[in-house]
Design goal:
This protein is an alpha+beta fold. Among the domains are: 267-427, Succinate dehydrogenase/fumarate reductase flavoprotein, catalytic domain (Flavocytochrome C3, Chain A, domain 1, Alpha-Beta Complex); 505-632, Methane Monooxygenase Hydroxylase, Chain G, domain 1 (Up-down Bundle). It is built from 17 helices and 19 strands. The chain has helices at 15-22, 28-31, 43-55, 93-103, 110-130, 162-180, 245-252, 299-306, 323-327, 337-352, 366-380, 387-413, 468-488, 502-521, 527-542, 548-568, 580-604, and strands at residues 35-39, 58-62, 80-81, 155-156, 183-186, 189-197, 200-208, 214-218, 221-224, 257-258, 263-269, 292-296, 320-321, 361-364, 422-431, 434-435, 448-450, 632-637, 646-651. Helix 3 links the parallel strand 1 and strand 2 (58-62). It is globular. Its EC number is 1.3.5.1. It is an enzyme of class 1 (oxidoreductase). It is a peripheral membrane protein.
């Protein structure tokens, strides 16, 4: 199958407007005749389900959580980008577009990214109308802060809980449609297969996670908004339940999987404390606005700190290495995530890590507290030289901006970050790869759409901070509701889709066989045993730095681990009850296939770009080294075993941006 991205012709700034003006529409009366399934109810899926129902479609929405408001979008902290230029600092649609393509290391599709920047401003208006309590300045205008990889302030935020507040906005819109009867909500249901009839996606097979019942659900189109696959690493900042199953089942039914090796390592996470851990905690990138990142300059000081003989606060300024400010003077602590992560790894690998494991650097707010304190003292006409007063006033400002994040850190680490620097280290966070989609957000399976983090479309090889929420809501509120009509216009006389067909029979049979195998296997090791093993292979050989030998080893080891899993996994309980181990086993089975394709994709991409860092391809200064021959999207077609997957290339053409060496110096 040839990849057709369906990018509209014409000038970049006019593509989306002209496309909307020329695609097919479904009139309001006919929308009542059409059913749409939406899988996932985070920001992308929740906003899509609410908007499609508002338009008049009949929507079935599915989530594996006990409520849509528990989707992992709730965990996003720092903010959401939009090109409104409220600060008057030179921001624009083009600037947001440019920063996003550059931040993704020139590995994203121009047309999609420009559209994202174009509709970003609408998202803020929509969310304000829903009552999202964005932070405001003294005069009442919405406040903005800066994030990594940009030179302007365009990030709207609600303290350190922006994702939660945005999700509550989408959830309220979704609840309204549930109340109207336009959305039928299926909580505690997990999609386990896509049903394709006559070449079109016509429904799903789902498992009721409470009763174990296998259900058939039909529709004229299926939309996946199921998030990313970071938990293939076992340890990540993702919620424990986050998985790749829906996307992977779609892949096995014909949807190409694009750029699986593009995974984001977030630089600002609480370091791993031991093998007992099952999840990592993210500290918002917004902290890098005011926090300064450093390690000691001298090994003797590192050793003293590790031994507990020296406190970081005792170290003089001249004995600290603010390495991001040193290496990247133009952007300093606000370099993109991939750059900041590799820089932290480099310092720790060189022996300057400050915790017991040697895998931590400091994020220090002492300078910000002093700066804000002096400013507040000046405003209030108080003594700016009173150190105790300045410290108190400064802490009050920081508490207002980041208080819940500081509280979370103290609860986890049992250290007061107002008094001593936070310790942070990079961890797996977001996946830029995902299901391949065209300009309409349709996959290579007609009638199957994919939105938000589950698709590959907007971030290239590295996502800029605060752009995940932007993409999810852009797709759900302002893109998919237009583009899906172009496809559904041909279904207004189709009538209801029957679930009594050989395609539904076959899909359900496949699901049942997998479940029965796992339940009856009676092996000797738990699901977590295999998941942890997979995670260690992925982190050690497909993590922050990759090389040819390690990737080849990973491919072999993952294939062997997968074979062992199917022979030796033990899943207690039965399939007709609430059985979280069974649900977990089904998800890990898919991770074991994805992991191998991930490593294969990374092996074939013989360059470094964004979050994909091949040790063989770096500049003399240790920066990522792109190669022009890899200026394409790698879209993989399923052919059985991951080793047999077939590569299809979508060439990336840049007509509005000059592709050059990425520099943040």
């Amino acid at each position: 199958m040839a990849l057709d991205s369906k990018i509209p012709k014409g000038p970049l700034a006019d593509k989306w407007t002209n496309h909307k003006n020329n695609i097919n529409l479904v009139n309001p009366a006919n929308k009542r005749l059409i059913d749409v399934i939406v899988v996932g109810t985070g920001l992308a899926g929740g906003s899509a389900a609410a908007t499609l129902a508002e338009l008049g479609y009949n929507v079935k929405a599915f989530c594996f959580q006990d409520s849509p408001r528990r989707a992992h979008s709730i965990a996003a902290q720092g903010g959401i980008n939009a090109a409104k230029n409220y600060q008057g600092d030179g921001d624009s649609t083009y600037r947001l577009f440019y920063d996003t393509v550059k931040g993704g290391d020139y590995r994203s599709r121009e047309a999609n990214v420009y559209r994202l920047a174009e509709v970003s401003a609408n998202i803020i208006d929509q969310c304000v109308a829903q009552g999202v309590p964005f932070a405001r300045e003294y005069g009442g205008l919405l406040d903005n802060r800066s994030f990594g990889g940009v030179l302007v302030s365009r990030t709207f935020y609600a303290a350190g809980q922006t994702g939660q507040q945005l999700l509550l906005g989408a959830y309220s819109a979704l609840n309204r449609q549930i109340g109207r009867g336009k959305v039928k909500m299926y909580n505690r249901h997990e999609m386990l297969d896509v049903v394709v009839v006559d070449g079109k996606a016509r429904g799903i097979i789902a498992r009721n996670l409470v009763t174990g019942e296998i259900e058939r659900h039909s529709a004229h189109a299926v939309v996946l908004g199921t998030g990313g696959y970071g938990n293939v690493f076992f340890l990540s900042t993702n919620a424990m339940g986050s998985n790749v199953t829906a996307a992977w089942k779609a892949h096995k039914r014909g949807a190409y999987f694009a750029n699986p090796c593009y995974t984001q390592i977030h630089p600002t996470c609480i370091p791993v404390s031991g093998d007992h851990q099952s999840k990592l905690t993210l500290m918002s990138e917004s902290l890098r606005n005011d926090g300064r990142i450093w390690v000691p300059k001298h090994i003797k000081d590192v050793e003293a700190i590790r031994a507990g003989k020296l406190k970081p606060t005792d170290l003089a300024e001249e004995d600290r290495d603010y390495y991001l400010e040193r290496r990247y003077p133009a952007f300093g602590n606000l370099v993109p995530r991939d750059v900041a992560s590799r820089a932290a790894k480099e310092r720790c690998d060189a022996g300057y890590g400050v915790n017991a494991t040697g895998e931590a650097v400091y994020l220090d707010f002492a300078s910000a507290i002093k700066r804000y304190g002096k400013e507040q003292a000046h405003i209030k006409g108080l003594d700016e030289n009173d150190a105790a007063l300045v410290k108190q006033l400064g802490q009050d400002v920081v508490r207002t901006k980041y208080g819940n994040l500081f509280q979370m850190y103290e609860k986890i680490v049992d250290q007061n970050p107002y008094e001593t620097p936070m310790m942070i280290y990079p961890a797996v966070h977001y996946t830029m790869g995902g299901i391949w989609v065209d300009y309409n957000l349709q996959t290579t399976v007609p009638g199957l759409y994919c939105i938000g983090e589950a698709n590959f479309s907007d971030h290239g090889a590295n996502r800029l901070g605060a752009s995940a929420l932007m993409q999810g809501l852009a797709d759900g509120y302002f893109v998919l509701p237009y583009t899906i009509g172009d496809y559904l216009a041909h279904d207004i006389r189709t009538g209801p889709i029957s679930t009594d067909s050989k395609e539904f029979d076959e899909a359900e049979k496949s699901v049942r066989e997998n479940i029965e195998h796992l339940i009856n296997n009676n092996g000797t090791h738990s699901v977590d045993h295999f998941h942890k093993k997979l995670g260690k292979i992925m982190w050690n050989k497909c993590g922050m730095a990759r090389n040819e030998q390690g990737l080849k080893e990973a491919i072999t080891e993952i294939a062997e681990l997968r074979a062992e899993f199917w022979k030796d996994v033990k899943v207690p309980g039965t399939n007709d009850e609430f059985n979280e181990e069974l649900a977990k086993a089904l998800r890990v089975a898919d991770f074991l296939e994805l992991g191998e394709l991930f490593a294969k994709d990374a092996l074939l991409r013989e360059e470094s770009a964004g979050g994909h860092f091949r040790e063989e391809y770096q500049t003399e200064e240790g920066e990522a080294k792109r190669r022009k021959e890899f200026q394409y999207v790698a879209a993989w077609e399923y052919k059985g075993e991951p080793k047999d997957a077939v590569l299809h290339k979508e060439d990336l053409v840049y007509e509005n941006i000059e592709v050059k060496e990425r520099s943040y110096k």
